[in-house]
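Q: How do we represent a protein-ligand complex in a form that can be generated token by token?
A: Start from the inputs.
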Amino acid sequence: MENDLIAAIATGPSHSAIGIIRLSGPRAAACAGAVFIPAGGKPLTDCAPRTLIYGTLHDKAGHPLDRILVTWSPAGHSYTGEETAELQCHGSPMVLTLALEALCAHGARQAGPGEFTRRAFLNGRLDLTQAEAVMDLIDASSPAAVRQAAGQLSGALSRRVEGVYAGLVDVMAHFHAVLDYPDEDLDPFTAQTVEEALSKAGASLEALLATYDRGRVVREGIPTAIVGRPNVGKSTLLNALVGYERAIVTDIPGTTRDTVEEKCVLGGVLLRLIDTAGLRETADPVEKLGVERSRKAMEGAGLILVLMDQSQKATEEEFGLLREAMDLAPTVLVWTKGDLPSAPAPAVNMPLPPVVTVSAGRGDLGELAQAVAELFPQGAGETAGDLLTNARHAEAAARAKASVDWARSALRSGVTPDALLTDVEEALTALGELTGKTVREDVTDRIFSRFCVGK
Ligand code: GDP
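Then emit the structure tokens for the protein with guanosine-5'-diphosphate bound:
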């Protein structure tokens, strides 16, 4: 049911100072008013909306549960667009559970994942990129990820897409003008106007698509490989990294151990450590030299940390691995175990990448953090929130670009306007899917099912 009254605990499941329950749907204030008695004695629905009202919360049997603050908003003035109420209780999981139970006894239903934001989308309060930004903001693991999500939430990406959309709608208007006079060919003046508009749309889409690499780095982090021979200190560095800057962020369990990934922020840059499952299995007898594993980890990496133990003499094979890494991606040569006495420095006759020394066992990663910050100055940098950040965006923008390209080549080869119309319409549909204007329901289902309950 899309229009019934939903309720959920919106704050995390831990004991905390404050815990919030939100309600959305018809009679939200009346439902809240059935379990909450304002201190002034007036029923909640007679209290002014959008103000904080102090009073007593009761359980379903009418026993006092907590002293809380409540606010309610009429339909049209809330996050979801529906009538809503928010109960700010003390952050006791038991109080919140009993309060939710009481609300459900008075006509509310426990909300599903993402149901509040889904209603905000369906009621036109947010478009799809903004709804996705809500989730990205909650998941953000670096300052840059926050800035991107916040900008996207305020509509920066949508505005950029809308600009292209409006240009293509103009093209359609030109076509329709021509189609009203079907006996005439596309007159040269119109053809030129249309070509100009298409080429402008194509260029904007190309620029938009070019933001995806950066957007992905901002949102997901730079895929980072940690390589080196066994015992060089890879898993110790990994453990120090995920504990660094209080940045254990996520542990994404994949279907196979190969896809386990961890994130950390180093030097202000979000790193996504790839193939970390392999790193933690240091005793793998099959992988004596670790070279194959290293090669695999380096594929697709955007940053490679090649580790060498500075207390041991580095081998020719290790420098071979370093050379391979440098051919593949930005690389840092990391001398490990900086706290141990150094072995004699090797004679090196190759150009070297940035070189740092760490002492991961003691958590000393300062030089590495600085090198990463210097390699990716934009990783911590500004974003206006108008980057493409996920595969759904990139796929829709690429489809729009392909349709615009088709339309342009069709125009050059002199086809009739109605043929162009189809291509332009397809481009509009793709852009509409990006912002959610023309998106299919199964797609929105998939997006909102990834939200947490209460969001
Ligand atoms: P991996 O096989 O490359 O993953 O290496 P490990 O991280 O398992 O480390 C191999 C050995 O080196 C372990 O005994 C670690 O305790 C030790 N080790 C790792 N980092 C340091 C360090 O910074 N200082 C010292 N003294 N020992 C270290």
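The chain is about 45% helix and 15% strand. The chain has three domains: 6-111, 130-211+394-448, 226-375.
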